Amino acid sequence: MSAYNLQIAVYDAVAAAVAPVPVYDNPQQVANPDDNSLFPFVTVGEATLNSWDDDTLTGFDADIVIHVWSRASHRLEAKGLQDTIYAALNRASLTVGSDPVILCDHVQSDTMRDPDGVTIHGVSRYRIVWTP
To answer: Helix 76-89 crosses helix 3-18 at what angle (to 10 degrees)?
Structure first.
């Protein structure tokens, strides 16, 4: 299975697009989540992979989630990062390992205020299909 290579491909594409904003695999990697100077940041989160093998081909259909975290007093910073990520991933020519991606499409995006009342949290989903 190529979950490892998928994470690397998406992480690399997102990190290149949003630089110098840091990208993590897990928001808990942030040393002190109460330190506003560490915001904004992005995390490449959950991925669900489904195989679609048949008698002649093998392949994967993945749903991957990208999170954006901001402490700006408005949603514009989070939405701007989501737009930048969209431009980097939607219909992108990615490779998973050495395998070309057949499809990389944006599925949906949303922003919300986290329960702490301060953090803006953006969530975007992408569908990625490839055949090894």
So the answer is: 120
| 99 DSSP β-pair partners | 96
Peptide bond into 100 cis (omega under 30): no
Residue of 87, 89, 67 lying closest to 78 (CA atoms): 67
Q: Please tell me the pTM assigned to this model.
A: 0.91
- On whether the CB atoms of residues 30 and 41 are closer than 8 A, the answer is yes
Integer distance in angstroms from the first to the last C-alpha of the chain?
9
Q: Which residue has tokens 């702490």?
A: 116
pLDDT in tens, the chain (132 residues): 578 888 999 999 999 999 999 999 876 666 666 778 889 999 998 899 999 888 888 889 999 999 999 999 999 999 999 999 999 999 999 988 888 889 999 999 999 999 989 999 999 999 999 888
Does 27 sit behind a cis peptide bond, omega within 30 degrees of 0 on the bond before it?
no
Backbone angles phi, psi at 45, to 5 degrees: -100, -135
